[in-house]
Amino acid sequence: MKAFEFLDKVKIDDVNTMVLDKGLGYKFIEDSLKINGDYFNFLKYGWGTSMLYDKEIIQDKNELYHSYNIRTYPGGTLLELANSQNKVAEFLEEADNLGFNAIEISDGSSIIDSQKRAQLIDQVKDAGYFTLTEIGKKNPEKDHEYSIKDRIQLINTDIENKSDMVIIEGRESGKNIGIYDEKGNIKNDDLLAIKENTPNNKIMWEAPNKNQQVELILKLGNNVNLGNISFDEIISVTTLRKGLRGDTFLKL
Amino acid sequence: MKAFEFLDKVKIDDVNTMVLDKGLGYKFIEDSLKINGDYFNFLKYGWGTSMLYDKEIIQDKNELYHSYNIRTYPGGTLLELANSQNKVAEFLEEADNLGFNAIEISDGSSIIDSQKRAQLIDQVKDAGYFTLTEIGKKNPEKDHEYSIKDRIQLINTDIENKSDMVIIEGRESGKNIGIYDEKGNIKNDDLLAIKENTPNNKIMWEAPNKNQQVELILKLGNNVNLGNISFDEIISVTTLRKGLRGDTFLKL
Amino acid sequence: MKAFEFLDKVKIDDVNTMVLDKGLGYKFIEDSLKINGDYFNFLKYGWGTSMLYDKEIIQDKNELYHSYNIRTYPGGTLLELANSQNKVAEFLEEADNLGFNAIEISDGSSIIDSQKRAQLIDQVKDAGYFTLTEIGKKNPEKDHEYSIKDRIQLINTDIENKSDMVIIEGRESGKNIGIYDEKGNIKNDDLLAIKENTPNNKIMWEAPNKNQQVELILKLGNNVNLGNISFDEIISVTTLRKGLRGDTFLKL
């Protein structure tokens, strides 16, 4: 039973929260999930970190996360590496052996044309994975080449192509990328344009910084899908969603 | 026996250090306290985080902290929530059941008039808790409405009303709030005004950032009461207090 | 066996990575090393933190780190404290009892003339330690008094005096110190001057921030020696070295 249950609180409908794991130990995770395991449902092994671990460790970690109904996937960069080496099929088989049950398709670090992207979505879905696609370039200069119209079109194309969830790139820093300016503030016009022209429940916003989480919750609702949450901020983000922190207290 | 005991070192008199817990696991805390458990004596479950945990977890964590003589309390935001729902009595009873032995009274997120505030202090003290009160608003615009005179008067009123310790709000960010400017630097005039017009040993400064800890130690003494210390900075802050880090080395 | 072994990847030659421990618990380290223990080989107990621990804890932690072939040493500040009290011999004996197998000689917080510095290097080496020396002052104003020529001369003098590795001070913040400007960006001319006039394999760059790690890897090679890496960034830094993150993907 939760503490202070007699207090009225804000409810959250279906919500997706994606957390970044960049090298956590098994026992640390096991211990932490007793506290935060009910408050997120996607776990990303950041970028290419999975390649540095022993297979057994990944298998054990995946099993542990799944026991809390948390989907796990390797970072999109790793699929890009496999794709650049024409080894996507082997990649998907290995990911399955390791116990991953979702896959992210991105082109943040390499060039993948729209036809190939659509084919990758098919291939990943056919292999039985929950399929996330990501919009955005890791390099800010390249990322800035997208107009907001481009982004909206890319999102909607991915959804037409049956991507289960489309992630808006925010990186770990949340600065100078996607809808964030150099200081990490949200570009409001871009946010609204995406909101009005895409199916919001299919969009996940990478929002590593607190000001971004607060603003997205206040503007898009407390069940906005948020990603790239750092592992030690899972509880904090949930308090923001539930109006249990000053920034959203009595504002939801 | 401590290491390198033959080296002369700076002593610290009675000192209070308050640390922020925003979702730490039981075993992680147990393991860490063997390293840092002697170096802090207040632990705050930040804002409304306590509501997200199972009762048993809080009870176990509180017991663990108490075994190191560390007082524990839920964030002031939670009492504000209870107060806004007219459930302060239930709140205090539940907090006792959960093993908390201190309570913070704040009005950072809601409006509580001075009469009600005084009554809350009475009520919390009567229930047997160590009683902390906090001065400051979570919202920077509202916080800036206080003149330094206002703050000093609020502090001294709380102390007259028997608050055991008065906290100067600094939030987790330490920026654009209380005595901190937008960059997190200390507003010197404000610091000195508070220092000269209040009983310093009853004041706890929330000082989440290192530059703030350094300056407060150099200006108010190494036994200045510091709060909102992040869990992984407990040892660092203690080295600053003892002149074991460059910033305060041979300066105390 | 590592995951995704069938993917071609960038190789790293001999490389040194130094990580900062500012108060980690034994079990947390034990758990983490299964993930990151192969990816760093120096561990520094920051500044004077070692003085705050029980001897047994340090002995146990040192043994644990050594089991992964990681050299351990107390921060240079502690040797400066011992030197200021004329207790270097006792310091070295205690460090040996505690299981440290490397020692850092710095003058970041105190004044040590060049003759004394040379003598300390001799003394530390004679005692059997791997010997690191550090160039730079903790106080930015004092640090800025060094010209780049001064720094290069200090580095080369240390190497002539048989220092095993020379560290370029970057502090934990990486700002306004050494080769970093106030925003933490690298001063390119200074970097190149040091690169061209010193033996690079003997230089370790303290580079706590990601932009610094990326730039040093791209400019000096993926086997550049990096220091002051935070414990939870060990895997991240390794992915940068191996081209497994957007910033260095296909650029090495």
Which series of helices and strands of chain A comes N to C? EHEHEHHEHEHHEHEHEH
Strands in their spatial order, largest beta sheet of chain A = 3-2-1-8-7-6-5-4
> Share of helix among residues of chain A?
40-55%
Oligomer: homotrimer
Structural account:
The structure is a homotrimer of 252-residue chains. By secondary structure, the first copy, chain A, is an alpha/beta fold. Chain A contains 10 helices and 8 strands. The first copy, chain A, has helices at 26-36, 55-66, 76-84, 88-98, 114-126, 140-143, 148-160, 188-197, 210-220, 234-241; strands at 17-21, 42-45, 71-74, 102-105, 130-135, 165-168, 203-206, 225-230. The first copy, chain A, has an 8-stranded parallel beta sheet. The radius of gyration of chain A is 18 Å and the shape is globular. The interface between A and C is medium-sized, with 38 and 31 residues.
